[in-house]
Amino acid sequence: MEIQNRAIYRQAYRILVSLYGPDAAFRPGQYEAIEATMIHRRTLVVQRTGWGKSLVYFIATKLMREESGGMTLVVSPLLALMQNQLEAAQKMGLSCDVLNSTVKDRRQDILQSMVNNQLDLVLVTPETLFSQDVQMQICKIPIGLFVIDEAHCISDWGHDFRLQYARLREIVRLLPLHVPVLATTATANDRVINDLAEQLGKDVFVSRGSLARESLWIQVLNMPNKIERYAWMLEHIPHMPGSGIIYCLTQRDCDYLSDFLNKHGISARSYYSRDGLEEEKNREAEELFRRNQIKALVATIKLGMGYDKGDIAFVIHYQMPANIVSYYQQIGRAGRNIERAYVVLMHGQEDEEIIDYFIRTAFPTEKETGDILSAVTEAGGLTLAGIEQKVNISRSRMDKAITFLQNDGFLYKEDRLYYASPKPYVYNRAHYDAVTAIRRQEMEQMKALVRTKGCYSQFIIHALDDPAPFPCGHCANCLGRPIFPETASFSARQAAAAYVDKMVLTIEPRKRWPAFAGHKAGKIQYQNMPGVCLSKYGDPGYGELVRQGKYAKPARFSDELVGKSASLLLPLIQEKRITHAVAVPSLRSGIVMDFVKRLAARCGLTYLEALEKKPAEPQKTMENSAHQCQNAFESFSIREGISLPERIILVDDIVDSRWTMTVCGILLMEHGCQEVYPFALADSSRTEV
Amino acid sequence: MNDNSAIIFALCSHIGEDEQIKPLEPREWSDLAKKMMERQMEPKALYQLSDPETRDALDMDDAALERIGRLLNREASLAFALNHLQDAGVYVVTRTDAQYPRRLKAALGNTCPPLFYYAGDLSLLDRPAVGYAGSRLITEEDLTFTRDTVAKTVRHGFIVVSGGAKGVDSTAETAALEKGSAAVSFLSDSLLRKIKVPQNLKALQKKNMLLLSAVNPDAGFHAGTAMMRNRYIYIQSQATVVVKSDYNKGGTWSGAVESLKHQWAPVLCRNQADIPGNQALINQGAIPIDSQWDGDVNQLLASRNSTQTEQLSMFS
Q1: Average confidence (pLDDT) over A651-680
Q2: In chain A, where are the structural domains located?
Q3: Alpha-carbon distance A57 to A53, whole Å?
Q4: Are B20 and A140 an interchain contact pair (Cβ–Cβ within 8 Å)?
């Protein structure tokens, strides 16, 4: 141990002993980090989970408060983790509290105690820290030590990009140099560490230890398709101890996989970015998982940083993650307080395509950011709905572009309005290109990991620039044999194949209008019934058949598609007593009409030409709700003098935004139809995490 | 932010002011700064307030020490306020920064504001400028005179400096921007509101504008601060044009009289017989101009100086 300042050491040791008894000793690196913080240095701690990072700032806080310094503010991303830390800090005799979404009713009281300097330490989520009520008070709060947990997020080279963390990076830059800042992370390679050190200022003290996690038993499986992967899980998850996490790249994959597992006796819940009321599903899933009442949580990277459950017994990757930093983080959730946890990585060709899609669409285009910025500048401030009306960009692309514009200081938000900032606008192409190039390299590194013949654990921590990586001795490569068998039984494969064959997508009815063309946002009076969609456009199987049909010369959907659609729809037709089929009309091609006629004949429905198409822009060039909705209204009308039956199946080839289906449904219902059931051959909406 | 700037900001910013937190007024900060300078202490020394030697050297009572301690304690949390402003493109420049308006510091010494909030390009402060001032009650004819005169001074390479208020100020600014020149405004209120006005915003984005405010960026109008900022306009200008002044009252009058007294900048006053305020200023030494003037400020001042020298030599 290196002791520069005996006085600080004596104090710190006294506190340690008072807590853990006369035999207590600091772990390697802990005291050095405390001392650096106490002499007002910027400190960066890169140590694996479980090393004892919180002890560093607990003791530093205690010492600073004894010298009547300001309070410690700990910015930490995860609620679950906060509760544990709060209890630990209280055990040390620190007066502390948390500021996050769970203490809404006490928030003003907590803030007042902070202003009055009555609390020693407060844990806060970045979202709460930057919320308006906290920002109103924060300038009155005496802060003596600033702690940033999961600090890799403030690096531009990190992968968990969050706007609030980007703002935190600015805060650190703006802090007077003598305000101590302690940044901690368990995952960062050299590039991220160098970037962090630069963000923190001159003369940064870096504490760095081994990243090896000895409880993890790693195995890699090359599995080309969905059926193989489903079958493997069905066969082997029941033999795994305890409960665990399955990571997927997209939301859709989470939903399918958890449905498949549930239908075959393995209890599972999905977890991904959900808004509003849907978020309740995440809380419920997390709660069930926490109490080990389900076998698996099927999640995207949304189940993110710092998720802390000590007894996670396995982590399976349904697809290959985009890079080793995220991979290390995700598998790192397993085996924290148990001796052994299983880690299984599945990979195949299609994973690479998905990752490549994420890499290609990670940054907004120059046109997207430029269009948004000039619309906002011209208008002197716009709401999100206002931007959507002025700029033809999809909502998710728009959200992304706005996040980047805010992060780079070109756009800011006050109440509900966005304003352009006076900062001269430049599109940061060089930086985006550099980051994109690095992400591709990282994907290559991930591909090298699945191919390696050496120790997986060693490969991973070496990739993270661990100073002394060593072989774990118990991964599949070290053992020289698979931990779990690499294949599944015939019956498991049969079950998986049958499930995959029956997969259909639902077409949820649109319930609310966006604000468009002078109309206000509001509830849709005539809503469609829930509909079905046969495939994901272009996916192997029916999705591919749909694509082939569209591009055939002449264009025609195959009899196989008609047959499959009929078998899918017949139970619904019988149950709901549907009598007619209506096609979404087109001026450019008769392919849908031809298909619907054949489908109607096969299902015993009457084919009805109820709708007419007017010349308009192709709907697929409309990028967001306001534009899609307005364009759909300009595109369709009801055939004059037609009398409509009570129940109709409304058929289109491709569904994306659902506004065409919604508007056609409204036209039918306004003219006497009572229930409209949408059906589409394929869904072309974008992949989301 | 360097430590010295951070200290000035923590001590003097009115952000988050309340019963507990009472920022130092410019005069109070000047006195403290002077005291520290005499003892060869840097502002950074205030970090050692707990050290008895520092306390002795500063020779302050407990209440004053307590007040300074409280102000400095919020230093870290003020980073959030700075960040909030920075998001909107508003920054802070303090007296210890090299980019602080040089002419103000030279002319006002210790009484110059400890800090400015600003948006836009500070290098516009290095360009020669003509100031424009006028009372709030103005006619279309006054505005035409303003526009025409700005067009001429712009042609001679002068940007416009004004107070960014309605009337003469904003007319002069708009005229300068339309002619492809630039504008600097010393605002007395509402910086955060003014950067949202599309015309200003576009000029700021093109680096043709600089807005400065010595008061909180969200402060409302206050007559006292409006008077104070008039002097910044004169000091920043090579000469300031008074389009129309009330007689013996109002900001335009007192600003011009103050500048004549301290010789901050030559006052060019529109020579209009039916405006008593303007006539009185010309009698007190303002240089008369009219719509025939070609806008060549340097030549006007040079010829004026030589006339004065001639007159002096005649009397000596």
Answers
A1: 94
A2: 6-208, 216-356+436-502, 362-422, 505-683
A3: 7
A4: yes
Chain A positions in Cβ-Cβ contact with residue B2 (cut-off 8 Å): 177
Contacts 24+ apart (CB under 8 A), A132-139: A133/A107, A133/A108, A134/A99, A134/A107, A135/B80, A135/B84, A137/A111, A137/A112, A138/B77, A138/B80, A138/B81, A139/B15, A139/B16, A139/B74, A139/B77, A139/B78, A139/B80, A139/B81
Domains A6-208 and A505-683 share a fold: yes
Residue B260 has pLDDT above 50, yes or no: yes
Which residue of A174, A177, A419 is in closest CB contact with B83? A174
Chain B CB contacts of A140 below 8 Å: 16, 18, 20-21, 74, 77
Of A140, A175, A420, the CB nearest to B79: A175
Q: Which of B2, B82, B84 sits opposite A135 (nearest CB)?
A: B84
A296 strand-pairing partners? A244, A268
Question: Does pLDDT of B39 surpass 50?
Answer: yes
* pLDDT at position B183 over 80: yes
Q: Which amino acid is at B40?
A: Q
For residue B188, pLDDT beyond 80: yes
Specify if B201 maps to a domain: yes
- B93, B118, B143 - which closes a domain: B118
CATH fold of A362-422, please? Arc Repressor Mutant, subunit A (1.10.10)
Q: What number does CATH give the domain A6-208? A: 3.40.50.300
Question: Looking at residues A82-92, what average pLDDT do you find?
Answer: 85
Average pLDDT of chain B, as a whole number: 90
Helices within chain B (DSSP H only): 3-12, 26-38, 52-58, 62-73, 78-87, 102-108, 140-155, 168-178, 191-194, 198-205, 223-236, 250-262, 276-283, 297-315
| Alpha carbon of B56: minimum distance to chain A alpha carbons (Å) | 20
Provide the domain limits for residue B126. Answer: 121-307
Q: What is the pTM of this model?
A: 0.80
Is B313 inside any structural domain? Answer: no
State how far residue B81 is from chain A, nearest Cα, in angstroms: 7
Which CATH number applies to A216-356+436-502: 3.40.50.300, 2.70.180.20, 3.20.20.70, 1.10.1840.10?
Answer: 3.40.50.300
Domain count, chain B: 2
Query: How far is it, in rounded angstroms, from Cα A136 to Cα B59?
Result: 35
For domain A505-683, the question of CATH label 3.40.980.20 is answered with no
Query: pLDDT band at residue B316, thresholds of 50, 70 and 90?
Result: very low
Q: Is the ipTM of this complex over 0.90?
A: no
